[in-house]
Structures are given as structure tokens and as C-alpha cells.
Amino acid sequence: MTAWVLLAATLAAIFVYGNRMGADWLAGTLEKQFREMNPLQGPVFERVILLGGATGETDAGGLQVNENGDRVVMAARLFHCGKAKRIYCSGIRKADNSRFATDEAEQSRIILLELGVPDSIIEKIGGCNTAEEMMAVSAISAGEPVGIVSSAWHLPRVLRLAKQSGVDAVPIPCGFLCNLNRKRDWRARTKDFIPGHRAMMMNTYTLREYIAMALSR
């Protein structure tokens, strides 16, 4: 009996954690305030901050973007649209436990160069986590508004930490996890009830954000 109870509890947990409808709703609670924004039609920024966490390295030593790679793409698009005069890449690895051989800021810089952004407008700043990144931004912002490029689900925490650091941050959202306005037929909606890895990933991101906010981090 105990084995059956454990099996049922495990299946229930998988169903809840992997349910796309629930994942969309939870991610939407973080992303909804940015849903109507179009950064490419927004103001021109003297300084745009590209937060780390969007790049990585391959086993062969090459660079790649990860599931948050839209951050790098958005920064490049802002430059090419004339919306970013300078781009500051953040992210410093912790040498003692990092998976990478280079800082994330350097990874972002190299990929931006490959996307046609000139090296002359790119700078690197420090920060091993979001709080440290906002402190680094505070040191260069000179009290002026700065655009912060990050995943939409991450921006609520970014804005809170920016305010604590005295940064006048303007959100530049990208990499939305969900699209609650999409129109789908009943077959597609039925599939949302089937547990999937995408929903589990979404819940992992959003729950981590809420835990970090609860811990004031």
C-alpha cells in the first residue's frame, strides 16, 4: 500500500509541476507587467545593461547562447535599431566553482561582436549575481536612466534590486516564457495538461525567482 501511495504522490507531483497551463499562469504573474512593451519602439538609451546568464561554453571551447540567449540578441537588435549607444555586459565567474573558463561578460561581448556590434561601444562590468550586478550598474549610471536587458520573468527582481542600489532602471524585456494571448484550438489546449519538460523548466525559473524575492535576494 505504501508503495502505491508513493507512486500516486509522485505522479501527482509530476502532473502539477509539468502542467503547461499552471506553468503559463505562474510565469504570467512575473511577466504580465511587461507584456505590452516593445523595446525596439522605445526610447534611445545612452547606456544599456546586458545582464549575464545568457551564454556558455562548449566542450570544444566555443561560445554559445543558452535558453536565455534572447538577452544577447535583444541587445544587438537595440544597437542596430539605434536604441543603444553603449552596451555594458555584466557577469563575472567565480573561479573556484565556475563551469566556464571565461567571464560571462566576455562571452557576451564576443557574441555581440559576431552579431555586428562594434567593440568600441561595448564595455564590461562586474557582478557574480543580480544584486552585485546592480551595484556595478550604480557605479556607472551617474544617476541617469539605464536600460536593463533581461528575461521578462527575471525583471521584477532586477527592478527591485536596482531600486535598492539607487539605479533608475528601465526594463527591456525579452525571452518571455509564455504567451497568454495566443489563440489555440481545443487539441492544443488538451496537450497542456500532459506533463512536459518545457513546463517543468518554466516552473523552475519562476519558483526560483519567488524564492529569491522571499529571501530579499
How does this structure look, described?
- By secondary structure, this protein is α/β, with parallel strands linked by helices.
- It has 8 helices and 7 strands.
- The chain has helices at 2-17, 20-31, 70-80, 104-114, 130-141, 155-164, 186-191, 197-214; strands spanning 48-50, 55-57, 63-65, 87-90, 122-125, 146-151, 169-174.
- It has a 5-stranded parallel β-sheet, sandwiched between helices.
- The N and C termini lie far apart (43 Å).
- The model has no long low-confidence stretch (mean pLDDT 89).
Profile the largest sheet: 5 strands, parallel
Q: Cα-atom Rg, whole angstroms?
A: 19 Å
Separate helix tally: 8
Rounded mean pLDDT is 89
Strand content: 5-15%
Q: Runs with pLDDT <50, length 5+?
A: none
Run of helices and strands: HHEEEHEHEHEHEHH
Percent of residues in helices comes to 40-55%
Would you count the extended β strands for me? 7
Instruction: Compute the separation of the termini in Å.
Output: 43 Å
Structural class assignment:
alpha/beta
What general outline do the C-alpha atoms trace? globular
Strands side by side in the biggest sheet: 5-4-1-6-7
